[in-house]
Design the sequence.
């Protein structure tokens, strides 16, 4: 498992940024679509040797000025700049933004009210170790039959990596697994005690499928996109999702799902109607 999160993030970002994104010609002899170390060095105003030392973990304490220059050179977004700063501060030890606080497992009443108003859309509230804290009835109809809500409390990362049903539920399991690791690494990763404990557990229970990703996947999961989910009653669904980050004191994220095509819209409508019929039957 990598202990060089800063270097890995810089290298992977360099390899995914195209020359056109930073105003450089692509050239005809380029082996990779990403940037060369020499190009990053010129854009950031540092030496190639220094870029190499950073990526290989031989220098883990770049100055604020160097971090800013690298962020400009790699065309980082605001969110990526914050992540870069956290990674650089994390190697110093002795301080993390979260301190030693345990995962927040309470839901503020206004947040619960917001979730209630999202019905019947599937929506789920997670803390930073992927525990399910609250969800809509629409999400329960979607996730319950698959097994996503099993456990006390349910934990989506644990389900994805250790439950055999996960690979059947997610046709794009590899991508989903990458995203869950990225979510756990969004921040100080193993400097956070709760995340470290979950990572240790998954290292034992999931083995290489988790450890390989922990060593190669950078932080920052996608905040929006489309996920495919196979439901035992509704069949394969294509769901567009949007992630809403709550304030830092909550350290929670709300994920809301919407149908990404007409077939999924119809399937969710059928699940909703079935849920209403079930409630009426129970009430009577």
Sequence:
């Amino acid at each position: 498992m990598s202990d060089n999160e800063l270097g890995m993030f810089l290298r992977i970002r360099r390899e995914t940024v195209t020359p056109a994104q930073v105003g450089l010609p692509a050239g005809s002899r380029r082996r990779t679509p990403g940037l060369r170390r020499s190009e990053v060095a010129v854009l950031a105003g540092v030496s190639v040797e220094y870029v190499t030392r950073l990526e290989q973990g031989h220098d883990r304490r770049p100055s604020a000025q160097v971090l800013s220059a690298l962020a400009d050179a790699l065309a980082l977004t605001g969110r990526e700049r914050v992540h870069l700063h956290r990674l650089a501060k994390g190697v110093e030890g002795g301080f993390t933004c979260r301190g030693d606080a345990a995962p927040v497992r309470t839901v503020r009443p206004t947040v619960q009210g917001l979730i209630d108003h999202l019905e019947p859309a599937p929506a789920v509230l997670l803390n930073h170790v992927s525990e399910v804290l609250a969800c809509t009835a629409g999400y329960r109809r979607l996730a319950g039959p698959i097994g996503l809500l099993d456990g006390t409390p349910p934990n989506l990362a644990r389900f994805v990596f250790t439950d055999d049903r996960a690979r059947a539920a997610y046709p794009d399991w590899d991508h989903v697994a990458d995203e869950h690791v990225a979510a756990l690494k969004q921040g100080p990763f193993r400097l956070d005690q709760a995340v470290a404990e979950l990572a240790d557990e998954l290292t034992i229970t999931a083995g290489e499928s988790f450890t390989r990703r922990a060593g190669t996947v950078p932080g920052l999961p996608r905040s929006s996109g489309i996920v495919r989910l196979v439901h035992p009653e509704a069949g394969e669904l294509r769901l567009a999702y949007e992630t809403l980050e709550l304030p830092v004191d909550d350290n929670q994220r709300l994920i809301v799902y919407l149908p990404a095509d007409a077939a999924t819209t119809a399937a969710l409508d059928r699940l909703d109607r079935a849920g209403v019929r079930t409630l009426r039957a129970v009430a009577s």
About this structure: The longest strand covers residues 235-245. The chain has a mean pLDDT of 88. Residues 262-283 form the longest helix (22 residues).
